[in-house]
Design goal:
Length: 331
Amino acid sequence: MTDPVYSASENRYGQMPYRRCGRSGVLLPALSLGLWHNFGSRKPFADAKAMAHFAFDHGICHFDLANNYGPEYGTAEENFGKLMAASLRPYRDELFISSKAGWDMWPGPYGNWGSRKYLMSSLDQSLRRMNIDYVDIFYSHRWDPETPLEETMQALVDIVRQGKALYVGLSRYPVEEAAKAYRYLAERDVPCLLYQDRFNIIDRNPDKTGLIDLSKENGTGFISFSPLQQGLLTNRYLQGVPADSRMAAGTSLNPSVLTKELLQSLRRLDGIARRRGQSLAAMALSWLLRDERVTSVIIGASSVSQLQDNLKAVENLDFTEEELLEIDRLF
Ligand SMILES: NC(=O)c1ccc[n+]([C@@H]2O[C@H](COP(=O)([O-])OP(=O)(O)OC[C@H]3O[C@@H](n4cnc5c(N)ncnc54)[C@H](OP(=O)(O)O)[C@@H]3O)[C@@H](O)[C@H]2O)c1
C-alpha cells in the first residue's frame, strides 16, 4: 500500500512564535530544525519524513541543511530533495531552506574552505540534491584564513545576484572577520541576514566574544546551533549512555566530555527544570529564547517525541533572577 498524500496541518501556525531576523523582512520560527544528523542515508527515510512533517505541522518552517550533512555527505540534502518531490513541494513558499559550504565535501583542492570555485559549485550541487531552484539562505560555513575574505564574500554576493539564494549568512567567523564581512556585504546591498554559531547554557562563546552584539548592531539575526550541546542538555545522559544515542555512535559527541563533574551539574540543572515544570531540554531552549538577541534555535532530533518535548520550550520563557544565577553558578 502507498502512503496517503501528505497534507499539512491547518493549525500549523497556531502555536509557534515568529521572530524578526535582524533588520530584515524575514520572520523565523523560534525553533528551526537542523538536518546534520538523523536525516542521512544511514537512518530510515520514514523517520526523517515523520520528523520533517511533524515539524512543519507545528510551525517549524525553517530547515537548516549543509552540503555535507548526512552521514554520508550529501545524503541529508538528497533525502530533503525526496521530501520536496513527495510532499513538501506545494509548500515551497512557506519554507525557509538553508544550505552551506565551507567544510570538507569532496576530494581535491576545490571541495573545501572558502574559494569562489568551491562555494559556487557546491551550491549548484546542493540545489540539484534538494530538488529546488534556489535556497532561501546560503552560508559561508566557516572562515577560511587562506582565502581573501573579499573572494568568499563576493561569491556570496554573486550567488544572490544569480538568483540561487535570496539571502546570505555566515557561520563560525572570528569577530573581526565577521565585522569586515558584514561591511563588505552591506556595501554591495546584500546585507548579511543571519549569523550562525553554537550557543547554549554550556557554551557561551559567541556572547563572550561580542559576536552576538556585533550581529545585532549590524542588523544581522543570530541563530544558535546545537542549542542542546548535541544532547548533553537533555535527560539523555543522566542515567548512562543509551545505545541509540549520538554519544554511543561516537561520531561528533565524544564520551570523554561526559565527566563526573559535568554529569553532576547536568543533574542539578535537571532539578531546576523540574521545579519550573519543564524537561531539561525544553528549559535549555527556553534559556536561549528568553534572550531577545536570539532569532531562532536550530534543534536536532532523532524522534518525533523529542520534537514534541522541545516545542514546549516556547511556553515558558520567563526565568527568575534566582534561577538564572543558579544556572550561571553551574556553568
Ligand atoms: N554551522 C555549523 O557549523 C553547525 C554545526 C553543528 C550544527 N549545526 C546545525 O544545528 C543543528 C542542530 O545541531 P545538533 O543536532 O547538535 O542540536 P542539538 O539540539 O544540540 O542536539 C540534538 C540531539 O539532542 C538530543 N535531543 C534533542 N531533543 C531531545 C529531547 N527533547 N530529549 C532528549 N534528547 C533530545 C538528540 O540526541 P540523540 O540523537 O542522541 O537522540 C538530538 O539528536 C544541526 O542539524 C545543523 O543544522 C550547524
